[in-house]
Amino acid sequence: MESKNLNYKVGSKVIMKKQHPCGENLWEITKLGADIKIKCLNCGRSLFMPRIEFNKKLKKIVE
Question: Is the pTM of this model over 0.90?
Answer without folding.
Answer: no
